[in-house]
Amino acid sequence: MANSYPVNRPYFPPVEFSIGWRYVRAGRRTQRGNRFISFISWLSAMGIALGVAALIVVLSVMNGFQKEVRDRMLSVLAHIEVFETSTAAVGLDQWAQLTDQLKSYPQVLGVAPFVSGQVMMTRGEVVRGALVRGIDPRAEAAVSQIAQQVREGSLADLRAGEYGIALGRELARAMGVDLGDRVTLIAPQGTMTPVGMMPRLKPFRVVAIFDSGHYEYDSTLALTAMDDAAKLFRAEGPMGLRLRVDDMQAAPRIARELAAQLPATLAVRDWSSENRSWFAAVQVEKRMMFIILALIIAVAAFNLVSMLVMTVTDKQADIAILRTLGSSPGAIQRIFILQGTVIGLLGTLLGVVLGVALAWSVGDLVAAIERLLGVEFLPPGIYFITRLPSDLRWDDVLRIGGVAVLLSVVATIYPSYRAARTRPVEALRHE
């Protein structure tokens, strides 16, 4: 009995893959018509690459602007706020116990009490509405970065009983005040006198001016000592607590967990819910921009369709010979699906490399263009930033690449179906 030994046979890919790859590489030693088809195929790949790169760069820049605004916003806002919802005020003892309880959570990095309320701010004939927030300067450093944003004076000068106030730069400019000047705050709670209800007025001295880079807060926010704010608004103590957590993205989840454990008289609000409309508008804008720029990739996919249709028309004789040799319609269809998919993958890969490189260097590139042309695309007085921000996110890159490849595969369906329906007799009649 003869011994049988395993034979290591070389692996040969299916014939349709070999032919499809040959069609992709065609163009050097071929006829003029084939060279034109090869030129169209590379043009389609370049169109997909440009569409993918443009989409990556635009979404990265939009993410950068969103991150810039969010960081500036959170430099003033706390990640989570706990405040009263009922008319029954929480006493100082309860707030102290609640502060210790919240500090025991491992996710909570800092807790600071606050008092807040709306006032009318006047100086001479100038009147502005403002949000006054009473803070403890030492505790505030644990929940916000407002101390690092003070441009004149210091938050340490907000001492109880001295009625000092810190104004945003835009608010100070609107009021026409500088350090040492006085402004008068008109509280909404009036004082009953024999002649009727009289507004409660209190002069404050400007001891600091801050610049957060966010116009909404720089033009409306004023900080003062918590005890002074409590006297102004007739509060018996803190109105709430401001919290900073280790992961701001997890703040909504942490807020829900805290709300389930705190008394029903206390409400918990995270930074995203406080600015829900703004973040919702940004998300809608990003989705619409994704759809609009994805049309560039769709146009390149239409070029891919035209290229494959021309290839099918040019290769009628080859298709007929393959069918005569026994190739199935499915095998013919796979040849052209492979050709279009490889071109789409090549264009997507080039676009991802180009888009990632541009997204990482768009700030330096725009700065170089500004120096070359002598212009400013982002005037600091308007946008509060000097460089074009970019925040590259790999989930966006994967989503964009997946859409490009999917459109490339879809573009091959009709041409490959048309090639599979080719009749050998009809194709060879004119050869």
Walkthrough of the structure:
The chain is α+β, with helices and mostly antiparallel strands and 431 residues long. 54% of the residues lie in helices and 19% in strands. The protein has helices at 15-25, 32-74, 92-103, 137-140, 169-175, 215-218, 226-233, 251-261, 271-274, 276-314, 316-324, 329-373, 380-383, 394-411, 413-420, 424-428, and strands at residues 80-84, 108-123, 126-135, 150-153, 164-168, 182-193, 196-210, 221-225, 240-245, 266-270. The chain is elongated and about 105 Å long. The chain starts with 14 loop residues before the first helix and ends with a helix. The relative contact order is 0.17.
First CA to last CA: what distance?
55 Å
Average pLDDT, rounded to a whole number, is: 78
Shape: elongated
Q: Order of strands across the biggest sheet?
A: 2-3-8-5-7-6
Rounded Rg: 34 Å
The total of beta strands comes to: 10
SSE series: HHEHEEHEEHEEHEHEHEHHHHHHHH
Count of helical stretches: 16
Q: Could you describe the largest sheet, including whether it forms a barrel?
A: 6 strands, mixed, barrel
Question: Helix share of residues?
Answer: 40-55%
Class derived from helix and strand content: alpha+beta
**How much beta, percentage-wise?**
15-25%
Low-confidence stretches: 7-12
